[in-house]
Amino acid sequence: MTLATDRRPGTTTTRSGRRPGLGGWVVGAAATLTVVLAAASAGTGPAQASTASTTLASTSRSSTAPLTNLAHLDWLGARVAPPSQSGHTTYHLAGEPQIGTLWTYAEPTGTGGFRHVGGGSYDPATNTYGQGAYNADDMSRAAVVYLRHWRATGASSSRARAYELLRGLTYLQTSSGANAGNVVLWMQPDGTLNPSPQPKELPDPSDSDASYWLARSIWALGEGYAAFRTTDPAFGSFLRQRLDLAVSALDRECLARYGQYLSIDGQRAPAWLIASGADASAEAVLGLSAYVEAGGSPAARTALTRLSEGVADLSGGDAQTWPFGAVRPWALSRSIWHAWASQMPAALARASTVLGDPHLSDVAATDSFTFDPWLLTSGGPDNGRLPTRGDSSQIAYGADSRLESLIATAQGSRQQAAHRLAGIVGAWFFGANPAGVPMYDPATGVTYDGISGNGTVNHNSGAESTIHGLLAMLALDAHPDVAALARTATISQRIGTTSIEAETAGLSGGAHAVVPPSLWTGEALFSGSGYAGVPQGGRVSFTLPAGPASLVLPVFDLQPGSSAVTTFTSEDRALGQVRSGDIGAQGDSPAPGALLPVTLPVTVSAGTTQLSASTTATGGDEARLDALMVEPLVSRLVLTGDGHSTAILSSRSHRVEHAQVTLPGTGSTQIETYDGTGRLVSSWSSRARTVPVRVPAGGFTYLRR
Question: 498 pairs with which residues across the strands?
Answer without folding.
Answer: 630
